[in-house]
Amino acid sequence: MKNILFLAIFLALAATSPAMAQSGADHSNHGSSPSQAPSSENGHDHSTMEDMIVLGTVTADAIQAMAHLQALPEDAQRQPPATHIFMVAFEKKQGKTIDQGRAAVKVTSPDGQTSKGFDMPFKGGFFSTELVLKDPGDYTFLVGAKVLDGKARQFIFTHDLK
After folding, report:
1. 3-state SS string over 9-27?
2. Is 19 left (phi over 0), alpha (psi -120 to 50) or beta?
């Protein structure tokens, strides 16, 4: 099921990026770490996805959430500043992708500080937001979502930033 979800997300992103589809990039390493995926329409630069990290899949009340984290190029000048893009794809347990609803994330950093909630608008196949993750260590991402039936659900992902 995870492979099907990843493939569906990849194909959705590929459809949004004609330049990547025509680039002839080698996609033979899918399913290995790190992953590669094409650009999305959400204004984020996904042209180099070597730093894409799959954080896993969590299920709550028949909704699956699969989270990804991508490091942004260090030379990118962003306002507001950001170091990573956090992305979540939701689907019904039967495999149907969810593209409507609301999602937000709170991040707990290695020093135990929890951020305010960051809205995650849907674009390019994901609910996503840009974050600043500057210190190495364990991060916890608490995703709150109201998708499909409007019922509030929470999904927790973790990552050890090196």
Report:
1. HHHHHHHCCHHHHCCCCCC
2. alpha
Each residue of 5-42: pLDDT tens digit? Answer: 443 443 343 333 333 333 333 333 333 333 333 333 33
**CATH class of the domain comprising 2-161:** mainly beta
What are the domain boundaries of the chain? 2-161
7 three-state secondary structure: helix
Asked whether 54 and 39 are in contact (CB, 8 A), the reply is no
By C-alpha distance, which of 75, 87, 71 is closest to 122?
A: 87
Nearest partner of 18 among 34, 44, 41, 35, judged by Cα: 41
What token pair was written down for 140?
Answer: 């916890």
pTM (predicted TM-score): 0.69
